[in-house]
Specification:
Pfam families: EF-hand_7, NUCB1_N. With 363 residues, this protein is an all-alpha fold. The protein is built from 15 helices and 2 strands.
Length: 363
């Protein structure tokens, strides 16, 4: 069960990785894990094998669960303290316990493993889609800001800016041919440039072992993404105006997704040696189509851009309305204060510190 090595990774994914690391120390469970496909894992078949692992592994898992339950309870207490005694939405807080049975905080059971696997795999399945959506919004915001900038320029400077923009686009598009990700040509280039080996001696089995960097018998998503670095360096260079590193990471994600769809036949988000060797016999590996890069495949449509700008305009309108309402409230409070001060002066009552009381001069 791979997990994303990312700062935004959810805590249940971290715990899931730690649990699986413990379980893999048990020979029986390790064999079951490697021989069970992802659909069976999702249906809870793997979780039932917990009953057959060794006592020392169960003891470690019990301790891990106690630590995690204590961490979550401390987190909830901290949130309650931060709210200063205000009523808390306990249903929302307890959702943080969904990936473990917190009613039994002492022992790690089959139900815990099943919940944990379900939660982690659901997060992973949604992870890439969220990244694509975030990238689409990033690209639309960048284009929106560019157009807003042009609106504030006179005609001469606007033409200069548009010409400069087109020059940058052409510079970015002027790069060497991009090999189809996962193709023989692409892997041979890695074999030659990164591994320092003769491309004429390319051997898929040796290549797999070289790039299974943690030696677990699988190429995971991070190990796979590392294979695309040479291709990405053809298109992107840090500190160049025409190259956007956020776009580079989206391109890397697209490449990884494509290869996984082609090679990962059991959909467990891992590439086994058998899957890899099988893929090297396919036509797509030997005679691939050309790769469509981001500049050839826009992240958003004209209709999506229109809806996005309408949304921004509505948000700006709402913000302006709130600002106007707050200003009116401020002015009304100031009028009420002035009226109160006048009433106090008439009654010869002392004014608050900082306010001068003007009384009629004595004759």
């Amino acid at each position: 069960l791979p997990t994303q090595k990312d700062p935004t990774m959810l805590n249940e994914q971290i715990i899931c990785r730690e649990v699986i690391d413990f379980l893999e120390k048990d020979q029986h469970f390790r064999e079951k894990l490697h021989n069970t496909d992802m659909e069976d894992i999702k249906q809870g078949k793997l979780a039932k094998e917990l009953d057959f692992v060794g006592h020392h592994v169960r003891t470690k898992l019990d301790e891990l669960k106690r630590q995690e339950v204590n961490r979550l309870r401390t987190l909830i207490k901290a949130k309650q303290d931060a709210e200063g005694g205000h009523e808390m939405n306990h249903k929302v807080l307890l959702k943080q316990f969904e990936y473990m049975n917190h009613m039994n905080p002492h022992t790690f059971e089959v139900e815990d493993l099943d919940k944990l696997i379900q939660s982690a795999t659901n997060d992973l399945e949604n992870y890439d889609q969220k990244r694509h959506e975030e990238f689409k919004r990033y690209e639309m915001m960048k284009e929106h800001e560019r157009k807003e900038h042009l609106k504030n320029l006179d005609e001469e400077h606007r033409k200069d800016e548009e010409q400069h923009y087109e020059e940058l686009r052409k510079k970015h598009a002027d790069h060497p041919k991009i090999n189809h990700p996962g193709s023989q040509d692409q892997l041979k280039e890695v074999w030659k440039e990164s591994d320092g080996l003769d491309p004429n001696d390319f051997d898929p089995k040796t290549f797999f072992k070289l790039h299974d960097t943690n030696g677990d018998g699988y190429i995971d998503e991070q190990e796979l993404e590392a294979l695309f670095t040479k291709e990405l360096e053809k298109m992107y260079r840090p500190n160049l105006d025409e190259d956007d590193m956020t776009e580079m990471e989206e391109e890397r994600l697209r490449m990884r997704e494509h290869v996984m769809n082609e090679v990962d036949t059991n959909k467990d988000r891992l590439v086994s040696l058998d899957e890899f060797l099988m893929s090297t016999n396919k036509k797509e590996f030997l005679e691939p189509d050309s790769w469509e890069t981001l500049e050839q495949a826009p992240a958003y449509t004209d209709e999506e851009m229109k809806l996005f700008e309408e949304q921004l305009a509505q948000e700006e309108s709402n913000l302006n309305q709130k600002t106007s309402d707050l200003q009116k409230q401020k002015e009304e409070l100031e009028r009420q204060q002035e009226k109160l001060n006048a009433q106090k002066a008439e009654l010869h009552l002392p004014l608050p510190p900082g306010h001068q009381q003007h009384l009629p001069a004595r004759s």
